[in-house]
Write a structure and sequence with these properties.
The two termini are 38 Å apart. The longest helix is centred in the last third of the chain and has 4 residues. 2% of the residues lie in helices and 44% in strands. It is mostly beta strands. Strand 13 and strand 14 form a beta hairpin. The protein is built from 1 helix and 18 strands.
Length: 206
């Protein structure tokens, strides 16, 4: 399975049924049928959970394909809602995103949010769609904490293992770039920046 955007190998499937003879898709779904010598297999590609984020004040931002939408979840009394009942929201289209969204992350202050693709990210204002920052990255995290959240610091890691620290108040320019002496599998934001290599170890940076 290959990624059509980054052209990277995502996953290899081996079902132990000898040779593959045919592939078939079901329209309007993510199901793929694979025909082997000794049988057939149906798999589902991708995921079904929504690409969305909500800040502490109830403002929701989500993506449907390349289009970004927003809504505000109004506070309601618990007695007015039944368990599992749908809550109607007034939605608004913010704009069209240049990257195919894979994840949306609000800044701790709620004033900004990042839309992350396979190898790119875009930082936008939360009130209206405005491209404030755009760059290459496979990982993106916001800083948190009483002092760091006010400054809007964030960290990114690109495909070449380079980690950069950016700031909203610093015109989104990258600063303090460094490259860890190991392959970075994941980064985590917070009061410190956690850089992990699989499940082997985690290194914390101030």
């Amino acid at each position: 399975i290959w990624n059509s955007t980054t052209y990277r190998l995502e996953q290899s499937l081996t079902h132990g049924m000898d040779r593959v003879w045919c592939l078939a898709i079901q329209r309007e779904t993510n199901r793929v049928a694979i025909g082997y010598d000794e049988g057939s297999v149906v798999v589902k590609l991708g995921h079904n959970y929504p690409i969305a984020s909500m800040d502490s004040k109830g403002k929701v931002v989500w993506a449907k394909h390349h289009v970004i939408y927003t809504a505000t979840a109004q506070l309601q009394r618990e007695d007015d809602l039944a368990d599992g009942e749908r809550v109607g929201l007034a939605t608004k289209e913010m704009g069209v995103c240049d990257v195919y969204p894979q994840k949306i992350i609000h800044a701790p202050t709620g004033r900004f949010f990042a839309v992350c693709g396979d190898s790119d990210y875009i930082v936008s204002n939360a009130t209206r769609w405005r491209n404030l920052s755009f760059d290459k990255a496979v990982h993106f995290v916001w800083a948190s904490g009483a002092s760091l959240s006010d400054s809007g610091d964030y960290a990114t890691c690109d495909a070449t293992n380079n980690i950069s620290i950016g700031s909203i108040n610093n015109k989104f320019t990258a600063r303090h770039p460094f490259r860890p002496p190991f392959v970075v599998e994941q980064i985590f934001g917070g009061a410190l920046l956690a850089v992990a290599q699989s499940r082997d170890f985690v290194v914390m940076y101030d």
